[in-house]
Amino acid sequence: MREKHLKLNKRRMGIWDCCELLNEHVDESDPDLDEPQIEHLLQTAEAIRKDYPNEDWLHLTGLIHDLGKILLHPDFGEEPQWAVVGDTFPLGCAFDDAIVHSQYFKENPDYNNPLFNTKNGIYNEGCGLDKLVMSWGHDEYMYQVMKLNNSTLPPQAFFVIRYHSFYALHRAGAYSRFMNDFDREMMPWLHTFNKYDLYSKSKVLVNVEEVKPYYLSLIDKYFPIELRW
What we know:
This protein is mainly alpha-helical. It is built from 9 helices and 4 strands, in the order αβαααββαααααβ.
């Protein structure tokens, strides 16, 4: 999947264009969301903006955090939902019980591979989360899109985007043994963000045209006009 998608040769478009393209999709893994994706993105961003008015990077992080779900779109390979959304987790070490539906890992060949089924597997404690190979999903794809297109968002934004679906870590504390000082410094922002990701999905629709100019100004501040996807 990394080989397939990280060449970033599918399309050139801006961040807002991607929001509108993603609008054609609803995430089937989300139990309480039947609006199109752009509503969730703006609800998250606006809820954060209300509580953290001075952290404009966090508002934009709310807007873009799920743009990796564009992998569901026919122009991007129309990947199945299970390969794009849902929990992410490290590969190369034992699967933790904190991962949702972890009982099904018994059918994964890595489960019985002695290289990968010990507590630390191929890693060392304290190695840093960036050393872990995470399961593929919309988090890793969007993180790489930001990185490879030279976004100037701060490290906190990159961290939030990359790990916001890593629920075993930020809900249950699993795999925290791999964190380093940088990760520990970033974690409070991830916990802050996830409160909004999970609980900002109100049925109150955001007036897209009303808030659009503000978010376009943030996109212009932190991203090139056109990105490779």
